[in-house]
Amino acid sequence: MQSIPFDDRDGVIWFNGELIPWRDAKLHVLSHALHYASSVFEGERCYGGSIFKLTEHSERLAFSAQTLGFELPYSVAEIDAACIEICKANDIVDGYVRPIAWRGSEMMGVSAQATRINVAIAAWAWPSYFSPEARMKGIRLKTSAWRRPAPETAPVHAKAAGLYMICTMSKHAAEAEGFDDCLMLDWRGHIAEATGANIFISFGDGKLHTPTPDCFLNGITRQTVIDLAKQRGIEVIERTIMPEELKDATEIFLTGTAAEVTPVGEIDDLTFTVGDLSKWMMDDYDKIVGKDTRGEAAAE
Q1: What's the confidence (pLDDT) of residue 18?
Q2: Helices 220-231 & 54-67 angle (0-180, nearest 10)
Q3: Most buried of 57, 91, 226, 274 (most Cβ within 10 A)?
Q4: The pLDDT of residue 3
């Protein structure tokens, strides 16, 4: 089924402090962000009318902007309030929230000190990123040919739009071969993450192993799942993980605002089970955000 284009929907978008009709939320073709990727964004989930970890996301948006050399024209508290306002204005109970900040069209060139910093926030109803069926049997990943860059070469700890170019390229290549997503290595050849989610691995020892986030985002969902695991008495080990270790893995799952907690059933020619650790983390995460266990958002 053809999805509704994102530029042709009903509703409103919060745009530089005002609610404007959805279809009127436009920017000029010569906006600096379009040409030079001077844009940062967030992805947030609304469950039962409440945005999960809202302030943490708004704080990260501000941090990302500062990392790219500009300051948001609104405080974290104002961004929080705007996210809540846009969900209410669009009657979003269970959905997705996308704040974004970017340099405008006042200057065109690598240097753009005098550009206006624009901020917009959209919200829409959105089901699971991966289908419930795929989540329960485990999604299929293919190792990407592209690698996460070194911290000295890109603002790797900012949620910056430009960093996602190789993610789109990787995911398209994987989908063309029937996979759901990609496993991305870093520039050293260590396991890093998926295209938009962090990764956790069990080697059958009752512990969870996850790559140290030294060149990719230390995801808010990642941090939440680490806390949930520790509450269960599960040891979480952050360390360098090499691709050749995957042959000894028993369970693997991804974590992210969009992905939530999603088990992995295959990586390349390796297969894994959706075992107890994955199910426990799925259940615990669903409960903390207000969802029915491994189901859709809790009924009203």
Answers
A1: 98
A2: 140
A3: 57
A4: 79
Q: Tell me if 51 sits within 8 A of 99, measured CB to CB.
A: no
Phi, psi at residue 280, to the nearest 5°?
Answer: -60, -45
Beta bridge mates, 267: 141, 270
Q: What is the pLDDT of residues 199-244, one digit of tens each?
A: 999 999 999 999 999 999 999 999 999 999 999 999 999 999 999 9
pLDDT in tens, 37-69: 999 999 999 999 999 999 999 999 999 999 999
> How many CA atoms lie within 13 Å of 151's alpha carbon, on the beta-carbon side?
9
Measured at the CA of 80, the angle between CA 125 and CA 159, to 5 degrees, comes to: 75
Architecture of domain 132-289: Alpha-Beta Barrel (3.20)
Let me know the angle formed at the C-alpha of 72 by 79 and 194, rounded to the nearest 5 degrees.
75
159 is catalytic: yes
Q: What phi, psi does 258 have (nearest 5°)?
A: -75, -50
pLDDT digits (tens, 9 = 90+) for 67-83: 999 999 999 999 999 99
The CA–CA distances, whole Å, from 177 to 180, 208, 237, 265 equal: 9, 29, 33, 16
The encoded tokens of residue 200 equal: 């956790």
Coil, strand or helix at 114: coil
Rounded distance between C-alpha atoms, residue 90 and residue 223, angstroms = 29
- What is the DSSP code (8-state) at residue 205? S
| Domains of the chain, residue spans | 12-125, 132-289
d(CA 25, CA 119): 11
> Which of 26, 137, 159, 230 is flagged as catalytic?
159
Look at the domain 12-125 and name its fold: D-amino Acid Aminotransferase; Chain A, domain 1 (3.30.470)
Regarding pTM above 0.85, the answer is yes
Quick count: other Cβ atoms within 10 Å of Cβ 178?
A: 8
Q: Distance between CA atoms of 155 and 169, rounded to whole angstroms?
A: 19
